Amino acid sequence: MIKVNGFVIKPTIFPDGTSQIWKLPEGLLDNKYVTITWYFEAEREIIDLFGIRALFPSAKEIALHMPYMPYARQDKEVDNNSTFSLSVIASIINSLHFSLVSTVDVHNPVKTKELIKNFESYDVTTVQQILIGVVNPDCIVYPDKGANDRYNAKLKSKLPTLVFPKDRDQSTGQITRDNMPPDVRETLEDLGVLRSTLKREPRFLIIDDICDGGATFIGLANVIHGIWSKADVHLFVTHGLFSKGMKPLADAGITAYTTNSLLKNVEGFNV
User: Fold this and answer.
1) Is 2-122's fold the same as 125-266's?
2) pLDDT in tens, 48-78
3) Whose CA is closest to 105, among 124, 78, 84, 86?
4) Helix 125-135 to helix 145-155 angle, to the nearest 10 degrees?
């Protein structure tokens, strides 16, 4: 879905699959300051983006805001046989000459800012801090070093943290995890002492930017439950794709939280 200054754009789709943007409200095209908000649903919206931008040739400022930025995870040039999709979408966006391009908690802020002109990524530290207050965890868990580097310093939490090692096979996309490192085991042992003080199992909050199918977080929950079978495991992700639904997470004993960066979550997807 794409909005222009709050108005939802509903392109007409013709039998051959092409589209046209028309029947816009009176006065919309007279705006000199324009904000396009793109809740990504499908690739064909890229064509709509070109069409909308062409409707405002004389706008003084025209900004593009994408709560969830498509292709942001494809941020590495793997080999000559693979598309560097972040670079491709960056070229498309740059060709439209926006005065500002913004998103929320982009996957690789350094690389994305390098590729896209006038780019800003807004963090979600305040939301995370509020959720920590609500969940009241005994420990914060990061699924990899990247998540720890992104969030831990900004959160300024005094809670113990677990950072799990992760290796990804670039040819298959599969994630492998080494045996539990000594620092993670030491933290878990400290939580064992904490459990005897609290007289309950520890409460964990996993933090990351994106949940797709959920396998990463289910694996973490399994590790935690393998030590503390009744541990309370919560998950916060900025962008909840939940491509396999919520049931696999719930079955793994995970309570999940997300933002409204994706349209299905704006419209009341049950999280």
Assistant:
1) yes
2) 999 999 999 999 999 999 999 999 988 776 6
3) 124
4) 80
Class of domain 125-266: alpha beta
Comparing 17-26, 170-179, 198-207, the range with the smallest average pLDDT is: 170-179
Spatial neighbors of 25 by CB under 8 A, at least 6 apart, are 7
State which CATH number among 3.40.50.2020, 3.40.1190.10, 3.90.190.20, 3.90.1530.10 fits the domain covering 2-122. Answer: 3.40.50.2020
8 Å CB contact between 123 and 154? yes
Q: Where are the domains of the chain?
A: 2-122, 125-266
Q: Which residues contact 23 (CB under 8 A, 6 or more apart)?
A: none
What DSSP designation does 28 have?
Answer: G
Sequence-ordered list of residues with C-beta below 8 angstroms from that of 200, at least 6 positions apart, any chain: none
Give the separation between CA 113 and CA 120, rounded to whole angstroms: 7
The pair of structure tokens assigned to 242 is: 């939940």
The residue assigned the tokens 């399994």 is: 222
Q: Distance (Å, rounded) from C-alpha 243 to C-alpha 249?
A: 11
Q: What is the DSSP string of 247-266?
A: HHHHHTTEEEE--S-SHHHH
Q: How far apart are CA 152 and CA 258, in angstroms?
A: 18
**Considering only CA atoms, which of 125, 133, 132 is closest in space to residue 153?**
125
Question: What pLDDT, in 10s, does the model give residues 95-139?
Answer: 999 999 999 999 999 999 999 999 999 999 999 999 999 999 999
